[in-house]
Design goal:
By secondary structure, the protein is of the alpha/beta class. Helices cover about 25% and strands about 40% of the residues. The strands form 2 sheets. Strands 1-4-3-2 form a 4-stranded mixed β-sheet, with helices on one face. Strand 6 and strand 7 form a beta hairpin.
């Protein structure tokens, strides 16, 4: 079977703040910026992975979402309960220093894990948890 990941979605409450983090701090590139029915979707990705994209979307991005469900999603996002993504890097410590020095919300400093990776974690400006792992065999 020929199956590959193409896109994943991260809810954000402020696209401009999200872009400052994902593009200016992490070094991802903007691939698309689309508005529709009062909402906005911005697609970003690593220059090292041209066929994988992250879509930064509003919470409850479906135009048919009820006002109550929109409010519930916004509350979960504000609490940092929604999940983010895990990135790989060749140098966890250097990436940690860059994100921390840019004012990133640190959740975990670089740590050697018993399952064979060194990782760290931050929250993006919307509160999503992002992990950055360096594999021992990299």
């Amino acid at each position: 079977m020929d199956l590959k990941l193409a896109q994943c979605f991260i809810a954000v409450d402020d696209h401009d703040k999200a872009l400052a983090f994902y593009v200016d701090v992490l070094g991802l590139e903007v691939r698309n910026d689309v508005g529709f029915e009062g909402m906005r979707w911005v697609t970003v990705g690593s220059p090292l992975q041209p066929d994988v994209e992250i879509v930064l979307e509003p919470p409850a991005a479906n135009p048919d979402t009820s006002p109550a469900d929109r409010e519930a999603m916004a509350e979960l996002l504000a609490k940092g309960i929604l999940r983010g993504v895990i990135f790989t890097t060749r140098d966890c410590d250097a990436l940690y220093a860059r994100v921390r020095d840019a004012g990133g919300d640190v959740l975990q400093e670089p740590t050697d894990q018993p399952y064979g990776v060194r990782d760290c974690a931050f929250r993006d400006p919307a509160g999503n948890m992002l992990r950055f792992i360096e594999r021992a065999d990299a």
